[in-house]
């Protein structure tokens, strides 16, 4: 860019001085884009403004930011735009416009974009993407994959290009049309675990203990994987047997009671981890590969001696067991235990009536087999059993009560949640 001569009038660019964490910076718009120029730390505001003025004068002399036309945002590629959205950069730049918020599923969405979107159109400019390009992306998903995989990719594309219209203003229309939405697939037999299979899974010492704690949390809370992975120790109230899920898919925080057996397991798990700080994650370092947790669960089930054929079936009308089906296991068990839809939704978030009806049918099967849900898992994980069984309120008996003859908490043949430390008659 040519520098301005001394005869030309010098027009200063406009900028603001900001302080964050003790460091000062100059925010200025150059060529239609906002830039941040570090000014340094350990100085007064007056000194920071003095340095900022020097920067502005220099940029004016050299012609930067003066009379420059706004940058054309259509030069952004699909990869750059989706990465900005998924990472949260788009939210930081524009704020909560058009429903923008922090993505709880950023990791899996990033993986999905890298696998299906970027290889097909990642280097293409956003404004150049056509409906035919979306066809090519959708065609990358193998036909044998579940219908939900196709639907998740469609939703990711639809939302990403909707944000390209507003607030990114990279194009005026959305190339993802309703015709790209995958057709509703045929009904499939969904998978869930039986109580005996969960106990076998938790008892298998060949499986890393952290992963077994994660499985216990999933089955006994009904939370999604993203919520489980975000749990911190400060979210677990051992004294009152309550758990707060603050990171959820729909953005609505949840607070609910958890069973005594799970409380005992978590207390023993924290002690085994060396009493980590409250801000530490409960299920960190669980040795579970983020993008293949379904295969990992199936491998773990086989290692635990669980061989029920329907869990591993590859028939077109059967869904193989996945990590998400631990949530389905929780709902099925809860319906079998006679829990209300409100009780279940308090723990799982939004579930519509059609979904719950599917779990009701599965619960009837458990009732026909006279299988009781939610067995006590206090001693289910061998490495944690001694510490879990000998908690602050005294060891729990097999029936759920204290050795002194306290309440058993047994209703309809299963253990009701009993807050450790305040076992009282209900």
TrEMBL record:
Residues 386-426 are annotated as: Disordered. Residues 397-408 have a biased composition (Gly residues). Keywords: DNA integration, DNA recombination, DNA-binding. Residues 188-374 form the Tyr recombinase domain. It comes from the Bacteria. Transmembrane segments: none annotated. It comes from Sorangium atrum. Residues 386-396 have a biased composition (Low complexity). This is Tyrosine-type recombinase/integrase. Belongs to the 'phage' integrase family. Signal peptide: none annotated. Pfam families: Phage_integrase.
């Amino acid at each position: 860019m040519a520098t301005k001569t001394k005869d030309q009038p010098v027009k200063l660019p406009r900028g603001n001085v900001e302080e964050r964490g003790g460091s000062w910076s100059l925010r200025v718009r150059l060529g239609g884009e906002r830039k941040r120029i570090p000014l340094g730390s350990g100085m007064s505001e007056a000194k920071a403004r003095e340095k900022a003025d020097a920067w502005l004068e220099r940029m004016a002399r050299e012609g930067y930011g003066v009379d420059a036309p706004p940058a054309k945002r259509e030069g952004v590629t699909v990869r750059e735009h989706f990465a900005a959205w998924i990472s949260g950069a788009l939210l930081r730049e524009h704020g909560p416009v058009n429903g923008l918020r922090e993505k709880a599923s950023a990791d899996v969405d990033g993986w999905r974009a890298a696998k299906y979107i970027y290889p097909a159109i990642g280097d293409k400019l956003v404004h150049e993407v056509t409906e035919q390009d979306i066809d090519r992306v959708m065609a990358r998903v193998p036909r044998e994959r579940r219908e939900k995989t196709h639907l998740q990719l469609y939703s990711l594309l639809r939302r990403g290009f909707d944000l390209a219209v507003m607030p990114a203003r990279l194009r005026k229309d959305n190339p993802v049309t309703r015709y790209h939405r995958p057709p509703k697939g045929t009904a499939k037999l969904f998978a869930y675990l039986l109580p005996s299979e969960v106990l076998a899974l938790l008892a298998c010492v060949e499986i890393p203990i952290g992963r077994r704690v994660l499985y216990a949390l999933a089955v006994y809370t009904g939370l999604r994987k993203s919520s489980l992975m975000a749990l911190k120790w400060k979210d677990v109230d051992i004294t009152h047997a309550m758990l707060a899920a603050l990171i959820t898919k729909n953005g609505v925080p949840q607070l609910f009671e958890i069973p005594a057996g799970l409380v005992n397991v978590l207390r023993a798990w924290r002690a085994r981890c060396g009493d980590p700080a409250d801000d530490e994650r409960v299920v960190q370092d669980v040795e579970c590969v983020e993008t293949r947790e379904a295969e990992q669960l199936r491998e773990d089930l086989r290692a635990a001696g669980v061989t029920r054929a329907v869990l591993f079936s590859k028939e077109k009308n059967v869904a193989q067991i996945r990590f998400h089906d631990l949530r389905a296991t929780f709902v099925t068990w809860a319906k079998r235990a006679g829990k209300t839809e409100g009780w279940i939704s308090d723990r799982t978030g939004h579930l519509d009536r059609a979904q719950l009806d599917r779990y009701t049918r599965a619960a009837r099967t458990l009732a026909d087999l006279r299988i009781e849900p939610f067995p006590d898992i206090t001693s289910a994980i061998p490495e944690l059993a001694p510490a879990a069984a000998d908690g602050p309120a005294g060891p729990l008996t097999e029936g759920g009560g204290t050795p002194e003859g306290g309440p058993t908490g047994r209703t309809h043949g299963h253990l009701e949640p009993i807050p450790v430390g305040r076992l009282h008659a209900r």
